[in-house]
Amino acid sequence: MGHHNRGTMAASDQFDEMHDADGNVRHAYSGYQEWFADQDGAFLKRKHRDAEQAFRRTGITFNVYGEDEAEERLIPFDMVPRIIDAGEWRRLTRGIEQRVSALNAFMHDLYHRQEIIRAGRVPERLFRNNAAWLPNMVGFTPPGGVYTHIVGIDLVRTGPDEFFVLEDNARTPSGVSYMLENRETMMAMFPELFMRVPVETVSNYPRRLARSLAACAPDCTEGKPVIAVLTPGIFNSAYFEHAFLADQMGAELVEGSDLRVVGGRVQMRTTAGYKPVDVIYRRVDDEFLDPLTFNPDSVLGVPGIMDVYRAGRVTIANAPGTGVCDDKAIYSFMPEIVEFYTGEKPLLPNVETWRCAEEESLKYVLDNLSELVVKEVHGSGGYGMLIGPTASKREIADFRDKLKARPENYIAQPTLSLSTCPIYTKQGLAPRHVDLRPFVLVSPDNVDITPGGLTRVALKKGSLVVNSSQGGGTKDTWVLKD
């Protein structure tokens, strides 16, 4: 690990995805810019208002965790697309395929022979004290050998050809409904724009998802696989997405109480009695999945589902126990993991990461707290983290104590100079920081990446936090056709 200082970068060092250093519009944005220049300002202002109203009407909200009244908040939508050209996208997809294949191989190894640990490439402590590692998955291989059927890989960009993976969402990546809604909104608002600029489609994602899940059905399936989306119910913050995807896939939307184990199969209650389900796309966490195996108080799951699963008679996507991969300490070993299972160097690098569990790294982090981003190993959603450059002396001092008390609980990374894309403001276009979550579908012999994804944008000027829970918004993401 190179221990060098990277302070916060001056705005001029940030890679602007639309304009080069001389202010010229980059190739990817040229078609959009020509269209934009032709538009009347009043027309654009009106469209900006329409978009806000449309999003209020559809009511895609999400729940802000960690707040007492758990209010529903609307995620703002920005109408300037984030545009990626075909060549860049091809390079990205190769890197994503490599990483996702390695993740699946790693999961299989962790629950079987643990070669990577024997080879000394990854320390055993990583999963020995990891709550997401499930002993009852040991020695069992899911149907088709797939662990992570749906993956969201979070990417950030710092330069023309510099993309880094920020995190892997292998448990239950959310946000795909925004990718689809954002595109639908744009096509409804600016149909003529899509005539001028050839953009790859994302709207067939639900069909691709259904096809990918069906390809993972267990051997006992008769005829066309029956797919169900298992939701915790209407009070869940992502319920809209669960209902939306089930509807678009032509799958059944079920809650735990609609399913039961009958005759060694998971079956769903219908008006004509019970009918077997082959594939369950579950949006319920591991610990609530089966009250007989995990949390006995859970009313969200299906008693006995793990026995049916281990008998190979139902597919659960994503597999229980995949949450291990969302761990930020495991993330820090991804370069070794990719190389171990693919025999190749990673095409998509990690962000440089200091593991505070290691003495030398901890010392470096404590000495440089004001310049680093420190994250909890099991944390998510931007809570429990320190952003050094924007933190007060008091916050830094408090965090220093936490770090010293439980160093193994944290990793640290440099403050990245995230790339910017323009957003629409009353004063015209203004640059804001963005990240990207492409959605990846894995079946036994295919890795399918939808050409687009969820672009999250920090709406506050200068802010690096794109998390929707922290006031970020979203944009339509365009991958140009060749």
Explain what you see.
With 482 residues, this protein is an alpha+beta fold. Among the domains are: 239 residues, no CATH class; 64 residues, Dna Ligase, domain 1 (2-Layer Sandwich). 30% of the residues lie in helices and 23% in strands. Strands 3-22-21-18-17 form a five-stranded mixed sheet. A four-stranded antiparallel sheet has the order 5-4-19-20. Strands 7-6-11-12 form a four-stranded parallel sheet. β6, α9 and β7 form a beta-alpha-beta unit. α3 crosses α13 and α8 packs across α9. The two termini are 38 Å apart. It comes from Qipengyuania pelagi. This is Circularly permuted type 2 ATP-grasp protein. InterPro entries: ATP-dep_Glu-Cys_Ligase-2, CP_ATPgrasp_2, UCP005522.
Strand order of the largest sheet: 3-22-21-18-17
Intertermini distance: 38 Å
Average pLDDT confidence is: 90
- The rough form would be described as globular
Radius of gyration, whole Å: 23 Å
Helix content: 25-40%
Number of helical regions: 15
Which residues form runs of ≥5 with pLDDT under 50?
1-11, 62-71
Classify the secondary structure makeup into a structural class: alpha+beta
- The proportion of residues in beta strands is 15-25%
Query: How many strands appear in the DSSP assignment?
Result: 22
Pfam family, one: CP_ATPgrasp_2
Protein name: Circularly permuted type 2 ATP-grasp protein
Domain Circularly permuted ATP-grasp type: 81-458
InterPro entries: ATP-dep_Glu-Cys_Ligase-2, CP_ATPgrasp_2, UCP005522
